[in-house]
Design a protein that fits this description.
single chain; 128 residues; two-stranded antiparallel ribbon
């Protein structure tokens, strides 16, 4: 049962991530040097921070609601796992570095970590 829940929730998280990526891709590109678009990985930041909040909330909410542990796994591993993306975050950072946008790369790392830790802590606090 847990594997089926993780699969269903994972698909939902991945589809939401796709929708968020698509939304940002159509609204945030701006011309850079030599006509190439300059990017900032807003979608990755949004999904990662949201995922941290969701996992934090899932730690306490499922128990408080009296749900079986499979539901916490479905929400945290499935939905939040399908939604979040470590690989896109690191790749975006490498891309910024390759464009010699060192400040933007450092900001990307710092904001993702700081906001992610904060969101997880808020989620846990709200669920407690």
């Amino acid at each position: 049962m847990a594997a089926a829940l993780v699969g269903v929730f994972g698909v939902a998280g991945a589809l939401l991530r796709f929708a968020i990526d698509s939304w940002f891709a159509h609204r945030t590109s701006r011309p850079g040097t030599a006509g190439t678009p300059r990017h900032w990985p807003w979608a990755t930041l949004v999904v990662n921070v949201t995922g941290c909040l969701i996992i934090g909330l899932s730690i306490g909410i499922t128990g408080r609601l009296g749900l079986a542990p499979e539901w916490q796994t479905a929400v945290a591993t499935g939905f939040a796992g399908g939604l979040t993306t470590f690989s896109s975050w690191t790749t975006a950072t490498v891309r910024l570095l390759s464009e010699s946008r060192f400040g933007a790369a450092a900001l990307n790392v710092g904001v993702n970590l700081g906001a992610g830790f904060t969101a997880a802590a808020i989620g846990i606090a709200l669920a407690s």
